[in-house]
Amino acid sequence: MAFTLVLHHLSSFVFLLHASGKLLLQNKLVKSLLRDYSRQRQDERMMFDLIRYNKPSQMHDQEGDSSLDQSNIDKRFEILTEVHCDRLNCI
After folding, report:
1. Domain that holds residue 34
2. Considering the domain boundaries, does residue 60 fall inside one?
């Protein structure tokens, strides 16, 4: 239960919150997550869970499919890549 709660809040903050005042905090959080992921590859499943997480909607019933489509997953990878490359000064 705790993992699902953390997953929900992290995913919402990193991928859904578009407040300009929070951009620096979002970038720091993403950098920290990526740094941790690079050090501990056994956490790969948790990182993919974060990327694929889709906030449950009240419109979905209990059995409904709440997975993201591929274009949304690609956008999330782009967000992570942008922050990661900014940290490494990628070209």
Report:
1. 2-55+65-88
2. no
Q: Is residue 42 part of a domain?
A: yes
- One digit per residue, the tens of pLDDT, for the chain of length 91 reads 788 888 888 888 888 766 667 888 888 888 888 888 777 777 778 888 888 888 776 444 444 455 678 888 888 888 888 877 765 666 5
Task: Indicate the number of domains in the chain.
Answer: 1
51 closest CA partner among 64, 33, 38: 33
Q: What is the DSSP string of 45-70?
A: HHHHHHHH-----TTS-TT---PPPH
Give the predicted TM-score (pTM) of the model.
0.61
User: Considering only CA atoms, which of 76, 19, 24, 70 is closest in space to residue 47?
Assistant: 76
35-44, long-range: CB within 8 Å, 24+ apart, which pairs?
Answer: none
